[in-house]
Amino acid sequence: MTKSFGSQNIWRDVSLTLPAGEVNALLGPSGTGKSVFLKTLIGLLHPEQGSVIIDGTDITQCSAKELYEIRKLFGVLFQDGALFGSMSLYDNIAFPLREHTKKKEDEIRRIVMDKVELVGLAGAEDKLPGEISGGMRKRAGLARALVLDPEIILCDEPDSGLDPVRTAYISQLLIDINAEIDATILIVTHNINIARTIPDNIGMLFRKELVMFGPREVLLTSEQPVVKQFLAGDRFGPIGMSEEKDEAVAAAEAAMQAAGISGGGTKDDFSEIIPQVQPNPDMPVRQASIRHRQNVLNIINDLPPNAQAAIRASIAEEDRRAMESPETSATLVAMANHQFDYPAGHGFQAYDGATEQISTAGMATAVIDAPTQVVETPTEEIVVTEEITAVTDEGQASSRE
Length: 401
Ligand SMILES: Nc1ncnc2c1ncn2[C@@H]1O[C@H](COP(=O)(O)OP(=O)(O)OP(=O)(O)O)[C@@H](O)[C@H]1O
Description:
Rossmann fold, globular, ABC transporter ATP-binding protein MceG, ATP binding
């Protein structure tokens, strides 16, 4: 898509596919048009060129009636919460249910109070938006975004106005919601911690273009100066206070850096991938992580070497953690939709570089892609549910049932 306001071009040729059910983040310096992008996705703004295709319908071309129906698939948390100032939080949160459904008031009450509880606002439901803190307004906006069980959730800076602990709760909530209802989520954020730990995929807008969009490891290990500067939060680099810097400024900065002057950024190594936040134990397995792993393994050979190594390390780390305890080991088994049970004292080994994929019924696919994993299970607990194929020491395929 390309979007301008009058003669001011906001971004051009932005093209991406949000993988269904996955969690995505969009980063970018202030004013690069991230909020405009979200509003374009729901048809509140219209691109001059391009299309927004949702479930096969191009919402830039469809009728007003079709757009109205498609909007019901969305739950949107706007940057400022966008609550009606004259309505209580309860009525704000109930609004989409009253507007879009024929539900009776007692059912509406049940749903609203459930969401109020979910976002930690129990007891505040009768207050007006003007009587609560910015962070509470944000959480009320999220509750309202969730009442219709949306298939697509757009969150414009869910963390703004929240302290780090509340931010962690909101992030966890988004991951739990993704596990529970398999919604496709797009989070616009400046919060690097969210970007590092929450999304499956990350994109970045800069200089009117989408710099990149793909598995989180691609951006986090990127060598692009704009990405590195943004992640580090450093004033030295291509991103300036208002607009891009000219050569003279860049040269002056280089001299300051050479003289040991700090640009204020963190020295964190972002290529050290932090494990993604997992759903709470009472949540179902996040189907998105299964699909995402498969999607990533399909394209891994086309990614930069740093990203490839980071992805392999992430997968190995995920599997290692999952196998550490019997409980999470069960999760791994469920995640892969495949039994990894072997007689006590025996192990299963899969070799890095010899990825073997096992297709199972439906959409789930098990992938063995870890550098040597051993799971020991008492013989009486062995359950083999399907034929599997493994790669042996000699690199030959062998099957067993
Ligand atoms: N309705 C509008 N009419 C004209 N210009 C607009 C409109 N909405 C946004 N803009 C302009 O589009 C540009 C991008 O704004 P946007 O709010 O999308 O940025 P952003 O990346 O979300 O910024 P931030 O990170 O600071 O929230 C800004 O220059 C803004 O002034």
